[in-house]
Amino acid sequence: MKADPSGVLTGTHFMDGDHACCEGALAAGSRFAAGYPITPSTEVVERFAARVPTVGGAFIQMEDELAASIALQGGVWAGAKAFTVTSGPGFSLMMEHIGYAAMTETPCVFVDVQRGGPSTGLPTLPAQADMMQAKWGSHGDYEIIALCPNSPQECFDLTIKAFNLAEEFRVPVMFMMDEVVGHMTEKVVIPPADQIEVVPRKHTHKSVEDYLPYGTNGDLVPEMAHAGDGYNFHVTGLTHDERGYPNMTLPIQDQLVRRLQNKILNAVDRITMTEEEQLDGADVVVVSYGITSRVAQRAIGMARERGLRVGKLRLITAWPFPEKKIKELAAKVKAFVVPELNLGQMVREVERAAGGKAKTFAVSHAGGGVHNPEDILKVIVEASR
Amino acid sequence: MTDLNNDLINKDLLNNIDPASDDACNDDFVNPVEQFLRSDRIPHIWCPGCGIGTTVNSFARALIDSKIDLGSLALVSGIGCTGRVAGYVKLDSFHTTHGRAIPFATGLKMANPKLNVVVYSGDGDLSAIGGNHLIHAARRNIDLKVICVNNLIYAMTGGQTAPTTPDHSTTSTNPYGVFEPSFNLPHLVEAAGAVYVARWTTFHVRQLSRSISEAFKKKGFSFIEVISPCPTLYQRRNKLGDGLDAMKYYKEKSKVRNGAPTSEVGMTMTGEIIVGKFVDRERPDYQTMMRAQYAESLGDRYVDQPSIQEEPVCS
Asked: Is residue A112 a contact partner of residue A59, using CB atoms and an 8 Å limit?
């Protein structure tokens, strides 16, 4: 369906990534957010708090991130599209509720504007060191989706995509921004509402008697009901059967946890978004995401000027990891170069997927700034040998 | 200590009911609260003598008496013995994470203001791990009805000290006796801003039911504490007898003091239990204030939240 025009600020704007993310949420139909202030993410909810009462929604500032990350899920079960926004320390506090959203299949979006860590770290400076946490941070086996914008325009476009994926798969989607992308101001074009595709809630139309809250068909994603619809359904973070009732038997645990994984893993190709450039005939492929992809672009350009055959693979979807893509490339190229603002996170995935068929070089950075393109270039040159 | 000689109920009467007789198994007899229960989930997990089921009975009675629209009623629990209430009531019910029933309920209410939202959870869940949410929800005066079953201990995990465990009692984590002061929950929530505060015990089933009905009529943060026995852990370890002994204790040592200053209603292990309705006051609730503020500041630009469900989907 098309976006509700009331939330769409159609036009050409000069806007930072945080604000663009907020506009993306509104365009996607989000009318509820719960937040707790934390640098460098706060501008998202500040704008939402100002905008949402003019489009028929509400914002609440909660007492902490634990509260924000579960209040938004209450909002979802009441029928809203909802999200919360945070950065490293707050993201750590939200982990239990990412697990709850995965287990209860609550469609929602967690925005993490990454800053330097660990702990309080570098509140005002960038990093990309929450990438593994986004995937593995909550206990137990589960799958999430994570997207990585690299510009304010993508903060708008991909926030809509994040909400759409959350609804399609009934899964929490991690929107992995970073401080630079969040705070950089660039041109953002917001199209008319009738050019914005939004995915509606997968609401059941079954009768009360026929409705099984966690019953699924071919696509492994159950239909949802909202509080107040008359279904008298039950939702629990305990292992549950198709009725939503606690059932802590081994077969039910196996069936549920595998379904939670498979509903995402079976759809990897559909979820995966990449940006590719000159991969054919490349000796070296630079794999990057977020702000680092823009720094890497410069390094790639410098390498090509030197006559090196360098391809670019930008991960727009970081999770589920586009393993197949890397595997295919590994059979053709000499090496992967993976610059990221951490001491080696997604590079491990690249290395694993490459399976020894191509070498993998990390270009690590402890965070607090972006790479010097020369540093990436050096590794590209080394990898090309 | 409890007086074991003062029998609460007529044991002869109980002994004279033959379970196989027509009186006991009349097909026409339907328990009036059964309609609110998921009978396919019974038997429940609660121990013999536990008071949580009794509170659910009073809650169900209140649903009947208050004639509240069940279609708009949602119930949210946290984790623990009382947290399991959500699984047994035939309502839209949410068994959330430990301590977070109140913020989840806040989200439900914020996104659909037409819902009546009840939080039904235990003392440890609401006042320890969820304590911050408790006081902030009371401060905001968000329109939630909180039923706090206080069994004075962490029961689900095996009898550890809770913020409500009375001084000098013994728990698995204070094997030499509890020496830290406990929370007086009515005092805490009154200070934080609750508009309705009452306490009963599981002996006071009718009073509890009435209080729940009253709370349904209030707009704002309402808090009802129910002192409830845990024979398996709290009482056994403290040599306080079984469930029946708890009833006797509640009967003998409870004193109804409606309007009592909440500073005077703290609990001890074997002393008097002050019960009653302590607070019943008016204060605009969060969403009323929010709408007024938006309307004042934004004028015509303010768009009130539409009902999120466009039409009932279920047939």
From this structure: no
Angle, CA A152 vertex, CA A147 and CA A157 arms, to 5°: 55
Provide the ipTM. 0.97
Q: How far is CA B153 from CA B80, B133, B182, in A?
A: 10, 20, 11
Render A155-224 in DSSP notation, one character per residue: HHHHHHHHHHHHHHHT-EEEEEEEHHHHH-EEEEEE--GGG-B-PPP-B--S-TTT--TT---TTS---B
Give the pLDDT confidence of A331-376 residue by residue, as tens digits: 999 999 999 999 999 999 999 999 999 999 999 999 999 999 999 9
Q: Which of residues 67-106 of A touch B (CB under 8 A)?
A: 67-68, 70-80, 82, 96-97, 100
Give which of A117, A48, A113, A114 is closest to A81, Cα–Cα: A48
Is residue B181 packed enough to be buried (19+ CB in 10 Å), middle (13-18) or exposed (0-12)? exposed
B236 to chain A nearest CA, in Å?
28
Q: Chain A contact for B308, CB < 8 A? A: yes
The token pair at A119 is 């702990």
Write the CA distances from A293 to A65, A120, A234, A297, A370, integer angstroms: 30, 25, 44, 6, 10
Contact A229, B312 (CB under 8 A): yes
